[in-house]
Amino acid sequence: MFSHIMVGANDIAAAKAFYDALFAAVGGKPAITDDMGRLIYMHDGALFMVTKPIDGEPACHANGGTIGFTMASPEQADAWHAAGVAAGGKTCEDAPGVREASFGKLYLAYLRDPAGNKLCGLHRMA
């Protein structure tokens, strides 16, 4: 369904340190940087990108928006979360753990990146 997700950042170096660590915790590779200075993370044909806003205005996060990343296990979600916090992210919502949802049990770990974007590591429990 998705081809790419792009978030804004005011400090590309801080964003690179954060996302390189975050994705390394789940087996990802460091970003490549294109000729416009955007960070590009590739996996299974999809892209996650980070850029300074093209309009020159400061980057800001979406109120109510969340970007979710699939995790293979609760342990992987915990490693992802810990790597994000260690690389400058901030934990948000409740502590990582199991939540009951109308569509089953989920293991969720929430972070905000250095620019304030809300991220979620999600594992669907059996």
Backbone CA Rg: 14 Å
Strand content: 35-45%
Question: Span between N and C termini?
Answer: 24 Å
What can be said about the biggest beta sheet? 5 strands, mixed
Helix content: 10-25%
Structural description of this entry:
The protein has 126 residues and is α+β, with helices and mostly antiparallel strands. The chain has one domain (4-53, 65-124): 2,3-Dihydroxybiphenyl 1,2-Dioxygenase, domain 1, CATH 3.10.180.10. Helix content is 21%, strand content 36%. The protein has 2 helices and 9 strands, in the order βαββββαββββ. The protein has helices at 12-24, 74-86, and strands spanning 4-8, 32-33, 39-43, 46-51, 67-70, 90-91, 97-101, 104-112, 118-124. A hairpin with a 5-residue loop joins strand 8 and strand 9 (118-124). It is globular and about 45 Å long.
Write the layout of secondary structure elements.
Layout: E1 4-8, H1 12-24, E2 32-33, E3 39-43, E4 46-51, E5 67-70, H2 74-86, E6 90-91, E7 97-101, E8 104-112, E9 118-124
Parallel strand pairs: 1-4, 5-9
Antiparallel strand pairs: 2-3, 3-4, 6-8, 7-8, 8-9
Could you write a compact summary of the structure shown?
This protein has 126 residues and is of the alpha+beta class. It has helices at 12-24, 74-86; strands at residues 4-8, 32-33, 39-43, 46-51, 67-70, 90-91, 97-101, 104-112, 118-124.
Q: Top keywords for this entry?
A:
21% helix; alpha+beta; 36% strand; five-stranded mixed β-sheet; 2,3-Dihydroxybiphenyl 1,2-Dioxygenase, domain 1; 126 residues
